[in-house]
Amino acid sequence: MVSIGGNDLIQALPGLSDAELEAFPRLVRGALERLAHAKLFVANVYDPSFGDDFNNFLDVDPATARRAHRRVNQILALETKRVGACLVDLHAHFLSGEPSWFTRQIEPSLTGASEVRRVFLDAILRTNAAADL
Predict the structure, then answer these.
(1) Does position 99 have pLDDT exceeding 70, yes or no?
(2) Cα–Cα nearest to 46, from 64, 72, 21
(3) Which CATH superfamily groups domain 2-130?
């Protein structure tokens, strides 16, 4: 189970350049290739604002942050597929979340951590059922 990119994305904003964003696929590819011998489940990056610009906690224009967030998740999806791993869609699940899922802007509470585990478990069960395990 791998979760990568969320803190990197937040720390890189607001000065995230296209060059830095273009280096991300290479870094993700290298990490996933080292783990390709295992059955991999790779999470994309959730949105702690629940998709609502009113909840923006960054000193960055929400449109800029969302564009970079989409790009990071696209990269994660492409690289996950490339190594034959399973993408775990935390982003979609957290869009229907609620503030109690966080202790601070991005840190999951006990409930939020359980939601992360739930999405991973669902992906594992779906994958095993599809493989008839």
Answers:
(1) yes
(2) 72
(3) SGNH hydrolase (3.40.50.1110)
CA distances from 45 to 87, 123, 130 (A): 11, 15, 25
Dihedral sign from CA coordinates of 89, 47, 73, 43 = negative
Of the candidates 95, 85, 87, 86, the one whose C-alpha atom is nearest the C-alpha of residue 115 is 95
Tokens of 95: 């869009």
Place of tokens 């990269």: 75
Q: Token pair for residue 88?
A: 């775990």
Cα–Cα distance measured from residue 50 to residue 86, given in angstroms and rounded to the nearest whole number: 23
**CA-angle at 117, arms to 112 and 118, nearest 5°:** 90
Q: What DSSP character marks residue 123?
A: H
Does 19 or 29 have the greater pLDDT score? Answer: 29
